[in-house]
Amino acid sequence: MSIHKPVWFSNDTVMVSTAPTCGLTKGGRLLPLVDPATGKRIQTEDPDTGALVDEINDQLLSDMKALVAGDATDTLRFIPVGEVSLRTAVPAYYDRRFDEYFEDSIGVGPLKGFKSATIGQLIEDGVLTVRGGHGSPSQDQRVGDVPYIKVSDLRAGLVNINATNRIPRIVAEKQFWKGEASGLRAFDIMCPERTSKNIGDFCVLMPGQEQLVVTKEVIILRPGPAANFDPFYLLWALTLKIVRDQWKRIVFMQTNREDVGKRYLEIRIPIAPDTETAADVSQHFRDYFLTLADARSNLNNYLVSSSQHHFFVSGVERDAVDVNDLIVEAGLEAVAEE
């Protein structure tokens, strides 16, 4: 018996819908369509009774109707069979709208003269270096002085140290750092890799916070030896909307938590044509974080000299330093001179 093939069927492509709704809530109830301008439910006339009823938010059904009619939608596309893998059999992964918008933005307007590359390519070329966190100490080990950083401590662009999550230095050195220091540097760029909705939101490790134990579920990036930019340009690039939106495609749910695996290496970022341009476009980021570092150092000077206060600012626990020393420490002398 022959099987009917719909007109849209192809042996060479796979139809993928990335519709975000299917008419049902997580609890199995009908999902009403809400007007984002008013926050009110949109109503339509019931064809049988004529009564007004809530319209259902079912974009998957809209995609299927468009498929039958031979129409196109933003969330319906055909992917070549060779590009589909069972290891990435998640519809969102094949939604290339944000990648396409990124490519259309490179080399024009504010990014005229810029090129682009994936994080993976930049690591291969020595432009970026990447490492993971150290590990996760058990609850009974959290009785010392070295801060332990969880994913939830990376918020709003900064690393927020929880005074109740600290471990003995001997445990940090022997079990997690494998040496006398953490391997972290001031102004390293850190991002959750698993378990949190803020995957793709990068934070800056401030001076004074270098000696931490960081959970493995964190990505730590810094400019490599071949880079023509500093950490502040890297943060500028990673926080562009055209870059940030790409993370929506690579974040998968595994069991009960989000995960990016090694797919974050596919994220593309703009590359400035020269050091001067990189420093110019990221100047506001540089000014903010260096000013913040200077203010933290000044506060530390007071706290050390006073000894009457609880150290309530994360990381203000080091000996007094000058902001110029911080610039040298982070390898930003050339940028500072400009």
TrEMBL record:
A GO MF term: DNA binding
Keyword DNA-binding in record: yes
Domain of life (superkingdom): Bacteria
Keywords: DNA-binding, Restriction system
One GO process term, biological-process aspect: DNA restriction-modification system
Gene3D superfamilies listed in its UniProt record: DNA methylase specificity domains (3.90.220.20)
InterPro entries given in the database record: Restrct_endonuc_typeI_TRD_sf (IPR044946)
Statement: the UniProt record of this protein carries the keyword DNA-binding: yes
Stated name of the protein: Type I restriction modification DNA specificity domain-containing protein
Organism: Acrocarpospora corrugata
